Amino acid sequence: MVKTWSTPPADEETRLIPCALCGGLSFKPSLSCAGFSYVRCAACGLVQINPQPAEEAIKRRYGEDYLTYEIANEDAFFNLQLLGLRDAGFGDLEADLFAKSAQLNQRPRILDIGCATGRVLEHLRKRGWHTSGVEICAPQAEYCRRKRGLDVRSTPLAENGFPDGSFNAVLASHLIEHLNDPASFAKEAHRILAPKGRFFVTTPNIKGFQARLFKERWRSAIPDHLYLFSIKTLSRLLAENGFAVEKIVTWGGLAAGTAPAPLKRVFDRAAKRFGFGDVVMMRAQACAD
């Protein structure tokens, strides 16, 4: 089974930290992978790599190799994200915002955090959005600026100093699982969203069928994924940082190549309908402080 792109486990200094969701310090073994392992918080159930490397060590993992991988898979990732956004009701939000912006004579603003090659941002700009991006992989950020003329910054979200209420929508696709402190990230996303702005978060689903079937061989059980969220733990993280979850969608019943095409189609439809997909996307509204 082919896994997601990842850097191999490196000789990085690690430290035990409190659970990012509940602050607990009691952990139980969860997944034992090649060269690294996951634990489960005994209090809230969040699956995580702990002890884990510091933020600076994490940043150093993303360089030219990561850009090459993202370019090679750009079309597939772009189409999957658009399908997920469609299922999560992005089109209705877009229509509503553009109707209001026409009255105010200003374009709605969107931020894509972890925007990779900028393909989604370029698509949204063509649709009339005022777009910005954040991408800590410096070669990718430069690629976005040079190839697509996008406003993309290569520093972590909190270091960009976006004013309060800057954006009508924020996207974070396959990002939150890479962060040392996902709670602070969610809190910052809430701060920069306008009142009732929407946060679209996509991440692998540890309670999905594939994760349960493959366990430590699951393609998302990789050293770069510091956290493996379930619908329950991600919903709690968002709720505790100012959001009301409005919509939850999952997709991916079986990975390509793991089953005959007719069987895969059956599992894919069932995963979307019954919520046991390999990937989960949540649409959350920013509540008033």
What is the tally of beta strands? Answer: 13
CATH topology label: Rossmann fold
Structural class: alpha/beta
* Portion in strands: 15-25%
| Unreliable sequence segments | none
Radius of gyration: 18 Å
**Describe the biggest sheet?**
7 strands, mixed
Q: Name the CATH superfamily assignment.
A: Vaccinia Virus protein VP39
Helix content: 25-40%
Mean pLDDT: 94
CATH class: Alpha Beta
Number of domains: 1
Tell me the span between the first and last alpha carbons.
45 Å
Described by the principal axes of the CA atoms, the overall outline is globular
Q: What's the CATH architecture name?
A: 3-Layer(aba) Sandwich
Counted by DSSP, the helix tally is 10
Structure description:
The protein is an alpha/beta fold. The protein has a single domain (59-286), classed as Vaccinia Virus protein VP39 (Rossmann fold), CATH 3.40.50.150. The protein has helices at residues 55-59, 64-72, 74-87, 90-104, 119-126, 138-148, 182-192, 209-214, 231-239, 261-274; strands at 14-15, 27-33, 36-41, 47-48, 52-53, 109-113, 130-134, 152-153, 167-173, 193-204, 227-228, 243-251, 279-286. The chain has a 7-stranded mixed beta sheet, sandwiched between helices. Strands 2-3-4-11 form a 4-stranded antiparallel beta sheet, with no helix packed on it. It is globular and about 55 Å long.
